[in-house]
Write a structure and sequence with these properties.
The chain has 281 residues and is α/β, with parallel strands linked by helices. The chain has a single domain, classed as P-loop containing nucleotide triphosphate hydrolases (Rossmann fold, 3-Layer(aba) Sandwich). It is 40% helix and 17% strand. It is built from eleven helices and nine strands. The radius of gyration is 18 Å and the shape is globular. The protein starts with a strand and ends with a helix.
Length: 281
């Protein structure tokens, strides 16, 4: 079982699209059992898998979300019906939701913003401990963590819990110039927490045209620096209807767009191959 965090400090780079579709492709095409953990307080990945009505029903039935991992044993939370007392669960009692064959999710929650979690409190280890608990009950092949687009205790928790991190990058100057800073931040966390996490690659997303000046400039920068070895051969092209598909709980493999389907499959195949090669070292 491998745990992979998708990380970029900038929003709007296709991180959630890549997270959810990697999970779908792994489960559907590669027959892998996959858990998606949505630790982004904006919970965009969750919104790709639940309708609004389904999500409200999930909350009113007091089913588990990422908040369940971090909340205290007993605290007051704001529910859809107002304030209520809720007893925190043991980690082994927190259950992900199966959304498709081989595809599970621990949904996100806006209430994550309300949890007080100072660095060094020990709570940053709870996600790692939860993963250890849940994998004794369900034999996942991959766990994908969709992280927030800012350095935070939630990003730290994801890094602590992960074996690898994957960087989605939109090929524009604002998106790719921050990856050096991102690596510095992750390296600092590795030193602070004695982590063994490795970068498993960099994927271009939302690419409009290969012959565009913007794309060529991004490619030139990446290939002229230390990031060259991390860049994936395939990239996700920009498609305006992907957002519409996601809102309807559909995925890239559900489209009739052969080029983007092949691109996704290529990214997932290379991800698997890179992990296999790393394990041989």
């Amino acid at each position: 079982m491998k745990v992979i965090s998708l990380i970029n400090m900038k929003g709007g780079v296709g991180k959630t699209t890549l997270s959810t579709n990697i999970c779908d492709c792994l489960s559907r095409r590669n027959n892998k059992k996959v858990l998606l953990i949505d630790i982004d307080p904006q919970f965009n990945a969750t919104q790709c898998l639940f309708t609004g009505e389904e999500y409200i029903k999930h909350l009113t039935e007091n089913k588990d979300t990422i908040v369940s991992v971090f909340e205290e044993k007993r605290n007051v939370v704001r529910s859809v019906e107002g304030l209520s007392k809720k007893k925190g669960k043991e980690l082994k009692e927190i259950n992900p939701i199966q959304v498709k064959d081989n595809f599970y999710i621990l949904p996100g929650h806006l209430e994550l913003y309300r949890i007080e979690m100072a660095a060094g409190s020990g709570k940053e280890n709870r996600l790692r401990r939860y993963i250890q608990e849940i994998t004794t009950k369900i034999n996942f092949d991959f766990i994908i963590i969709d992280t927030p687009p800012t350095p935070s205790i939630w990003m730290t928790s994801a890094l602590i819990a992960s074996d690898y991190y994957l960087i989605p990058v939109k090929p524009d100057p604002i998106s790719y110039t921050g990856i050096d800073l991102l690596k510095t931040i992750i390296d600092d966390k590795k030193e602070d927490f004695n982590l063994k996490i490795k970068c498993i690659g960099l994927v271009f997303t939302m690419v409009e045209r290969e012959d565009s000046i913007v794309y060529k400039s991004a490619l030139s920068k990446i290939e002229s620096e230390d990031w060259k070895k991390y860049k994936y051969r395939k990239y996700l092209p920009k498609r305006t209807d992907i957002a519409k598909f996601q809102l309807n709980k559909s995925f890239i493999l559900d489209t009739n767009d052969t080029s983007i389907c092949m691109a996704l499959v290529g990214v997932v195949d290379e991800l698997i191959k890179r992990i296999e090669d790393d394990e041989k070292k």
